[in-house]
């Protein structure tokens, strides 16, 4: 379904495989439209697309390298190289299929870079305004990659509130962030609806799955099996993340939680300390990363809960049980 939009844009008729269509973003695959037009061999075409996925995933390494060299200058050169390459492999999705999450992961690293630049320029109004605009643009584009990118918006909002409360400073330019953020988010959601309808055809008025994220928290408490299913999903996804990242995620989560706790307990000292050393940079990374992971897992635990509960109760709908390891 990911290639439906570019196929539609160049006039290909894929109506025969449109049954049960679900929206999977267009911000990445729209760039494949010229390839779909120029290359007729499906095997060669798909291999080229997968190669692009591999390049996109590999680009995480130079972004990580730049982050560590610029903001954490005390790190050893050998460690920086090893850690940067490792970050491009520490993902739950491999570059063997066309996944929009490959670009979404890279975009999150770019968001981290912009957040660290904002932290570095928090007292420079002009630079902060410009960086805030770039941050919002990155978040807007991420929404065209996958509707689940709303987690990045929420994670940034959590970080901004925490930063203001801890350091008593705005990490972003508040007026620009609110105005451009609201306008950009509204624009991206409208574009998602437009592209989804365009893919199905202008005459289609039916609801399209996956164009937005929705769930019911109250469903967790409807029955004991619902609560059990919710726990299964949360624990299963956390375990999958730890296994796929070779245990490094657990170490990072513990360190990040320690930094956050320290900032909470010693809020006055943190505000007085300001940006001496790398403490605030570490805190920025910890808050955004842990918030994004927690929001993603919690959101999926609620949205997948109905199917998992049904599978537990009746043994049907077994496909929903993949939610126990479906961390993206």
Write the layout of secondary structure elements.
Elements: H1 4-9, H2 33-38, H3 42-58, H4 60-71, H5 77-89, H6 101-120, H7 125-145, H8 150-167, H9 174-200, H10 224-244, H11 248-265, H12 267-273, H13 279-303, H14 305-314
Describe this structure in words.
The chain is mostly helical. The protein is about 65% helix and about 0% strand. It is built from 14 helices and no strands. It has helices at about 5-10, 35-40, 40-60, 60-70, 75-90, 100-120, 125-145, 150-165, 175-200, 225-245, 250-265, 265-275, 280-305, 305-315. Helix 8 runs antiparallel to helix 13 and helix 11 packs across helix 13. It is globular and about 65 Å long. The mean pLDDT is about 80.
Estimate the helix proportion, in percent: 55-70%
Q: How many angstroms separate the termini? A: 18 Å
How many H/I helical runs? Answer: 14
Mean pLDDT: 82
Beta content comes to under 5%
Structural class: mainly alpha
Q: Which stretches are low in confidence, meaning pLDDT under 50 for 5 or more residues running?
A: none
Sequence of secondary-structure elements: HHHHHHHHHHHHHH
Radius of gyration: 21 Å
Brief rundown of the structure:
With 328 residues, the protein is mainly α. Helix content is 67%, strand content 0%.
Question: What features would you highlight for this structure?
Answer:
single chain, 328 residues, mainly alpha, 14 helices
